[in-house]
Amino acid sequence: MNKKQKKRALSILLMISLIVSSISAKPIPAYADSSEGSHSHYSSDELVEFYFGTEVTKDTVYSPDVGYGFTTVEYLDPAPGWIEGVYYPRKPMVSHSSDYVNAVMASSDANENLDLIPGFANNPADNGNSETGEADDVNVVSGTAINVVSETVAADIKANPVSGPALGVLEIGSIVWTETESSGYGVYTYENTSVFNVDLDNADYNVTVTLVNPSDKEYTAYLKAEDITKASGITVAPGETVEKTITAILVDGQLNLKFLASSSATQESLATRGEVYVSKVSIVRQATNELADKPTIFIASDSTVQTYDDYYYPQSGWGQTLYHFFGDFIEERECTDCDYSQAQTYETDKVIIENRAIGGRSSKSFITEGKLDDLLEDVKPGDYVLVQWGHNDATYSRPNRYVSVAEFPEMLKYYIDGTRQRGATPILVTPVARYSPRGDGTFNSDFEGYRQAMIALGVEKNVPVLDLTGASIALCEALGVEGAKSLFLHLAAGDYDGAYAGGATDSTHLQYYGAYKFAQCVAKLILEYSVDNQLDTLKSYVKLQMPSTVPETVSNLVTTTVGATSISFAWDSADGSELYYIYRAELTAGMTIDDIDFTQAEKYSVSPVARYTDKNCESGKEYVYAVRGFNEFGLGEFSNKILVSTKSALYKFDFDNG
Q: What is the C-alpha to C-alpha distance for residues 465 and 409, in angstroms, rounded to an integer?
């Protein structure tokens, strides 16, 4: 018997044993208390498999004693809608049942479709041995039960359709539709279906779902784990077997899997039942991430923290400037394990900072979009996760984002438990202030309810809390009503190129100086944390740079490159400088560099580093430049002045295209 024949024989024996004995599932891993955030170390992967249609049947309804099985989720009542400015969607009704699960039996209804399944007799797509020309008695595609039926067994099933056994597959039905509330900002997908649940340790898992199609019509499926879409657009043709592996991040002690038929229905009345066919579910627990040489500081937050492209300068988030306070900078790079471009990595000689913040998200939508899952999958023992939410949670007009103050702690617990389960330290950061001055020169705390909820939760769960709300308000008040505008996107037209060439009056988002100063506040709060020793190691990495006087005088201002329309120059870093103000004047006929006096001049531009390129020059012109350092105490002395002449274009060409 050759290798191929042995494989077929083993497959036939496996199918016979499944049909006759209904082999039970492999023991599932011991499951943890779903409410705890304790860390467990797993040194190797662990596997559990469920064969649908044989060991898992329509009667396999979830029970805590068994640890796996189906429940049914339905959205039967209409959405309450907008009530006092808040939108309330439909509520799910959960029952211990398998109402949307059907066994695929060898009944008369299925006779015509049996030939479509690989391995069944008379299947035109698989009726011969490609090596010997003999008729195949089995077609092994993936090793699943649906593909290991011998010709004899198939013939017996077709001869006895009513009493024939299950075919190693379950039909999972679903009724899916979306609803969009009246403002257009809240879009909800509702899925009436039966969910497969497995009690497991809180860890990371690779879940492989084997989909088959014993019907005569193609179907398209999508898969959810923990109610997060993990794979979509999965097309399964008649007779085809498709395996899809997804990653599930468990925080609550139970894996919830949905197998759903894709739907374009935009209201319940248009939704029809669709079916997918599941043959097997394999669950592999991933080995625990190992301690690294450097800890990583992950940041989960919104647009006040996010990294921005150069086009949006000076808009910045404090997450993109935090590296300034953690040692010597090495490099910035894109996050390699994150699927959105805003996520950036900053490495210093002491730590790695992964800024996973992204605009428009709240504590809820960051979870439902799978972004927290993506973050937790990369968290290692010894890491830290900074969590700042509140700005978008408070936005009533965006229902998919909105989280009430009462619901806010429950969302944050997911971050806390998920982080601790993976051996890392969660840190709550209260929302950064807005430019919100009162008439007396003090500033409002616009998200006070969320701030207090974080502080209370920190006490309840013994989680470090950095009160950035308080620190950022104090900084605004120290700078004064006018001075605090330098922290936010209050920009005059012409100050910058790119997105803000026309200016801006934005009291929520930050310009570079604000991002730098608020990141400095975060670093200072870490150093000042004294409730317990949870941040002692992190404190040792902080290199706080706090000015006590105006900056030193900028020195050694020199030209680096000169073109026809741009000039680049650099200077020595000045102690105490947090920004550099650039001054420029154009010489006219008869003037010299000595005629230029910048003492009463407005700044031309700013730079966060000790170099600058002026791209708004004209060829054949002479320009004079000087630089001053800036911090919260004021401006330092002017640097030396430099005179630079742009190059003249040697040739000009006129093309007549007429």
A: 13
